[in-house]
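Notes to self after the Tuesday call (sharing in case useful).
The group wants a holo model before anyone commits to mutagenesis around the pocket. I volunteered. Ligand is glycine. Logging inputs and output together so the record is complete.
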Amino acid sequence: MRPSRDSYDVLVIGGGIIGLVTAWRAAQRGLRTAVADPEPGGGAARVAAGMLAAVTELSYGEQTLLDLNVASARRYPSFAAELAEAGGGDIGYRRCGTLAVALDADDRAHLRELHTFQRSLGLESEWLTGRECRRLEPMLAPGVRGGLRVDGDHQVDPRRLAKALLRAAEAAGAVFHRSAAARVEVVRDRARGAVLDDGTVLAAGQTVLAAGSRSGTVDGLPEHVLPPVRPVKGQVVRLRMPAPHGRQAAFLSRTVRAVVRGSHVYLVPRENGELVVGATSEELGWDTTVTAGGVYELLRDAHELVPGITELPLTETLAGLRPGSPDNAPLLGRTALPGLSLATGHHRNGVLLTPVTGDIMAELLTTGEVPEQARPFSPARFRPGRPVSRQEQPV
Ligand code: GLY
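Result:
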């Protein structure tokens, strides 16, 4: 029997939030779009806490990425509204703000420096004493020495976001093939779609590789086109906060975070009572085991910030894989192989960068050009010494 052969303008390989937003935006622009993924809406978003932390996760040397992060954060209110209108429902976008706190003198010195850096870049961030931090969040440990209040760093619920994108993409006409891409089809030096694990052959004018941490492992592509993306394991635990009754304050009203013994720990309280505590950052290949050590470290560090967490029911432990890239920034745009584009490598910022990634990829797929703000994120930046072909050149 001949395998079925469907034909599309765009085939997106990977149905995580980045693949879904690409498919949604492409379908909205009238492109016949398909997504290949055995479990669309799964992936790293099932684990992610959903912080939109452009300012509090700022790192030295990542100012270019900051611009993209801030641009995407600004789009969230209208993006959430548009998704709701498109039948995606509520994605749990919450303008809750974030408090980054220091537990000792070294942390405080580090946060002070971060504050100076943030202010030098024109970012909104306010220094608070330990007492002021506790006035905002009474559950904080008495030992908190000071902190940064960033009201512009919000949150969204990544599981709801994935569900909403799936519904919106379907409503816009995207077709879902619930099977993984076995290999990209390359014919006469051009990507022309993919063959799926179930034997389906999908022909496409443009193929987008958006397979998260697996993007570098897809068969059929020449070595130099494969993105340098690696899995970075993150373990997360979920707790349940008590419902506030009467005049009792919420357990936590905003995201609280710190760096404890060199590791980031954050507590993200949702309106539905869920408290997400994350996340480890481990270079362990494809391992997604939840370990006693990982959970212990998260709870130990979170307990130093908010001692009352030990009273809360533990509802879930999970590990996922961030798609890490060599410079922690995404790869967005054409590759050296005609017909193949990338939307991957979002590392710690996949949820935050979802709105802007959708817009960038839609522009690329409909006009052949990426917007100005996406040019620094061209996949070509990881091929030093290679002549950049006209195809992949930033336009
Ligand atoms: N952005 C949070 C994390 O990747 O853990």
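Two things stood out.
The chain has two domains: 1-95+154-228+326-395, 96-153+231-324.
The first strand starts at residue 5 and ends at 13.
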